[in-house]
Write a structure and sequence with these properties.
- The protein has 15 helices and 16 strands.
- By secondary structure, it is an alpha/beta fold.
- A hairpin with a 3-residue loop joins strand 1 and strand 2.
- The protein has helices at about 15-30, 40-50, 50-65, 110-120, 140-160, 170-180, 195-210, 225-230, 250-260, 280-290, 345-360, 365-375, 380-405, 430-440, 470-500; strands spanning about 70, 75-80, 125-130, 190-195, 215-220, 235-240, 245, 260-265, 295-300, 325-330, 340-345, 410-415, 420-425, 445, 445-450, 460-465.
- An eight-stranded mixed β-sheet has the order 4-11-10-9-8-5-6-7, with helices on both faces.
- The chain binds pyridoxal-5'-phosphate.
- Pyridoxal-5'-phosphate binds near residues 132, 266, 301, 329 and 341.
Length: about 500
């Protein structure tokens, strides 16, 4: 659960009272109905950047008024409002509607992990190395405004109508050319335009999965995909990765034993690990999919963002018998708010996915599709990609240099050749959630490894984004991260010293 609370450090009102009064009004409004568990004190303290005792005092005040109570093993729970305030009387109000009882689908616990992180990153004073988004300072705003203006003025009365669910035909033609540039042969009829690639994941899950169906995923993998597959009730089968991508030598056993409905892979500059799957593994994965007749979902938001050598062509480029759905997006190479993604798939899959899309949102935004056609036609997408390939390596190098400079021993990281992320491993025994708690106090954020794991793993790892912040902010963020790690290491030293000092019975 994330609780929408802001604290104002300039205000004369003490911080604990600000927190207390906001939670009080959320309870009265029914936003926090009876039975809701408040965030653990430490989590809320981290996301607000305050001391734990501040949150603790706020909770105690609420408890003293009977609005919440501490329950052993459950944390702090919102109580039912006292009767006098429910019925009759002038200042009475009816019991808030218990919305959660009406929801048909429960959302997984990991979402709250992410929501708390989102709350932390929403604070203006926090340097977020968490988000997986491009650099806003590099957005080609003037150019996008120019093409939007042109198509709107020239064709407004046509383009502001509905368009086919599969997408505006000239846009699908432009996408087919873009795909060809990546080595993927497609006709416009093989293409479905999406409201972001996240929608593609959702449509594919709805088309292919029913509760209990096994789905192969990499460990670690993109957390938005894990959430979609979990919500579909899929049984997640994790395959470990190494520096060449998914361990295809371990895949065959899963295919024979579980007969999965889908293999989900991110072979190029993977989110979160930055790893590129080798050409040999790409071939091995496809031939296993062909032998065992399993659809492959290849998610490729980052393939164009290479900073040294060009990565191997997508798996889809090797697909001769229609086993692969190729998914991509403009979110990482242009801007995420445009909400345009696309997929390439065999006709039967495009038809079925298109039908589900029609039931969901009729079609994707027409203005964005027309504007993108013009943007691509003028060669501006390729120019923008070239600019990103010049700018992002500088940010990556700045982050690597800052890590070497500011971070004490106790952390390992990789050197990705493209994409958005560095993947970090803490020394044995250190946990990234503890590091995030310390980092939150120092106003810097990243994503804990657990979020990307289909199983219980990932406690010792975390993801750093190097594209969103500019170079000075990256250096500052890593300096703060180094301080946070220093505290964790000092705690561990103290803990060890204390353990050495204790006398243990010999049994
Ligand atoms: C691997 C991967 N797939 C899909 C998405 C979703 O992107 P969008 O829906 O903005 O296209 C992301 C965004 O972080 C991603 O990293």
């Amino acid at each position: 659960l994330s609780v929408p609370i802001n604290v104002n450090r300039e205000s004369d009102e003490p911080l604990y009272l600000q927190i207390e009064s906001q939670i009080r009004s959320l309870i009265r409004l029914g936003d926090l109905p009876a039975g809701t568990r408040l965030p653990p004190e430490r989590t809320l303290a981290t996301s607000l950047g305050v001391n734990r005792t501040t949150v603790s005092t706020a909770y105690q005040e609420l408890a003293a008024d009977g609005l919440v109570e501490g329950q052993v093993g459950r944390g702090t729970i919102v109580c039912s409002l006292p009767d006098g305030r429910m019925q009759g009387g002038e200042d009475s109000f009816p019991q808030p509607l218990p919305w959660s009882e009406f929801f048909s689908v429960g959302e997984g616990g990991q979402d709250s992990l992410v929501r708390d992180l989102v709350a932390l990153c929403a604070r203006e004073d926090v340097i977020s190395l968490a988000a997986g988004v491009p650099a806003p300072d590099l957005y080609p705003i003037e150019r996008f405004a120019a093409v939007t203006d042109q198509v709107l003025k020239g064709h407004g009365s046509v383009l502001l109508q509905h368009c086919p669910t599969e997408g505006h035909l000239p846009f699908r033609e432009a996408l087919a050319e873009l795909a060809a540039g990546r080595g993927v042969a497609a006709s416009p009829g093989n293409i479905l335009v999406l409201a972001g690639s996240q929608q593609g994941l959702d449509l594919i899950a709805r088309a292919l999965l029913k509760p209990g169906d096994p789905v192969v995923v990499e460990v670690p993998t993109y957390l938005g995909a894990l959430n979609v597959f979990r919500r579909a009730g899929a049984r997640l089968l994790g395959v470990p990765m190494d520096e060449d991508g998914m361990r295809t030598d371990l895949l065959e056993r899963l295919l024979t034993r579980y007969r999965p409905q889908l293999i989900y892979t991110l072979p190029t500059f993977q989110n979160p690990s930055g790893v590129v799957m080798s050409q040999e593994r790409r071939r091995a994965l496809l031939s296993l999919a062909e032998r065992y007749q399993v659809p492959v979902l290849e998610d490729d938001p980052y393939g164009e963002l290479y900073y040294s050598e060009r990565p191997p062509a997508p798996i889809k480029s090797l697909d001769r018998h229609g086993h692969v759905i190729y998914l991509s997006t403009f979110s990482k190479i242009l801007f995420p708010g445009v909400r345009i993604g696309w997929l390439v798939a065999p006709r039967p899959a495009v038809d079925r996915l298109g039908l589900i899309k029609q039931h969901t949102d009729l079609h994707s935004n027409t203005l964005a599709q027309w504007a993108l056609v013009e943007f691509i036609r003028r060669g501006w997408l390729q120019e923008h990609l070239a600019a990103l390939r010049r700018a992002y390596p500088q940010r990556l190098q700045a982050m690597l240099a800052a890590l070497r400079e500011y971070v004490p021993d106790g952390l390992r990281w990789n050197h990705p050749g493209g994409g958005f992320f560095l993947w970090c491993h803490l020394a044995a025994g250190l946990r990234s959630t503890d590091l995030l708690a310390e980092a939150g106090q120092r106003r810097v954020a990243f994503v804990q490894g657990e979020a990307f794991h289909a199983d219980e793993g990932g406690q010792g790892s975390f993801r750093l984004n190097f594209t969103y912040q500019n170079v000075p902010a990256i250096r500052e963020g890593i300096e703060r991260l180094g301080e946070a790690l220093e505290v964790l290491l000092a705690d561990r030293r103290e803990h060890r010293a204390a353990r050495r000092g204790t006398v243990r019975p010999i049994v």
